[in-house]
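Dear colleagues,

For the upcoming journal club I promised to circulate an example of a predicted protein-ligand complex. I picked one with nicotinamide-adenine-dinucleotide because it came up in last month's discussion. The inputs are reproduced below in full, followed by the predicted structure.
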Amino acid sequence: MAQTYHKVGFIAFGQRGQQLAETLINYLPEYGCPAAVCDLRKNPVVSPLFSFRCPDIPYVTDYRELLAMPEIDSVIISTYEDMHVEIVKAAIEAGKAVYCEKPIVQTLEEAEELYRFVTNRPCQFQIGLNLPNFPVSLKLKELLDQKIIGDLVMIRSACDVGQDFARNFLINKFSGKRGNFITAKLTHDTDLLQYLCGSYAETVWGKTKNVMWRRHGEPPATDDTAFMAGELHNGVLFSQALTSCGNGYERKFHFFGTKGELLAEIHGDGVTLKPACGLSSTIPAPNLNGGGHNGADFVTLRGFFDYLDSGVMAPRHPERILSSVMIPMAAIRNELVQTGKWYRSVIERG
Ligand SMILES: NC(=O)c1ccc[n+]([C@@H]2O[C@H](COP(=O)([O-])OP(=O)(O)OC[C@H]3O[C@@H](n4cnc5c(N)ncnc54)[C@H](O)[C@@H]3O)[C@@H](O)[C@H]2O)c1
């Protein structure tokens, strides 16, 4: 693998764009550097670190201007999902490698369009789904692949973002011009669930509603609570909940297998193993990396640059364009949805 020093263009420089730029500057400076910024806001306020490290970086307000810069070889897109398909296509057509944030699209039609686009041409494309790279997720994947609890039977998964996050995001952010909180959040959890099981949802039933988070006197801008259940293609049953009334931000996964149970809080530092014999032990999963999201941003970005340097001109995990959005989007419909039929039909048509 011939490694190159990457000149990275950031399309959108809000909280997420800046967090990833700082991860690149602090933890991956041998891999590349921020080389241009595009944001609709003319003068985005940046951190002292960013202005010290990138004093001469060009700022533009039209992404096409950034894509026309020949020195930029890769772009990190962190606009909201309403612009993803348009900007990803333009970036790939301009010859740039693309890292695009989740939720990758806003509808299933867009998922099909983007899947077809990236799989029908030589290109480098990856979604910024970082939850599988949390230390606990990496340990869970290792243990499940080893079949430490035998064959999987069922998964119970619950995400509660807590009241502080809910105020900050559900009211401040989503009540502004944002989209759907259910898809924005649960694309992470349901992508992880399917990834850990090496499968995809065959059927999904769900219900979502707004229970408590809205501006006084105004209709809700987005639902804040969800429950969904279904069956994976490999026969494993699952449930996934989303609430926002707890006292902290946590994601609890509980796996039941033919030889016992595995329990984990994804933001924690260990996995509890409960073999069927009745014993219980904790397997450590410490964070050994710096950077945001328990070190997952570092692992995810490093993986992206290694993929670019591999020279493989094919999208990375393009099927996750489909699978990462189809469960929460099915839940919003409040009926039984045959997600597996749709997933296979898109992949088979190619
Ligand atoms: N993977 C993760 O862990 C993670 C974490 C946080 C956010 N995100 C995702 O990142 C995205 C952005 O979230 P955020 O927290 O940075 O939001 P934000 O509101 O802080 O920033 C969004 C930025 O996008 C800019 N923007 C919008 N349209 C644009 C366009 N057409 N061209 C250029 N700039 C444009 C806005 O001016 C703003 O600065 C969301 O899709 C969110 O789901 C992912």
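Two points we might discuss: The two ends are 29 Å apart (CA to CA). The first strand starts at residue 6 and ends at 11.

See you all on Thursday,
B. R.
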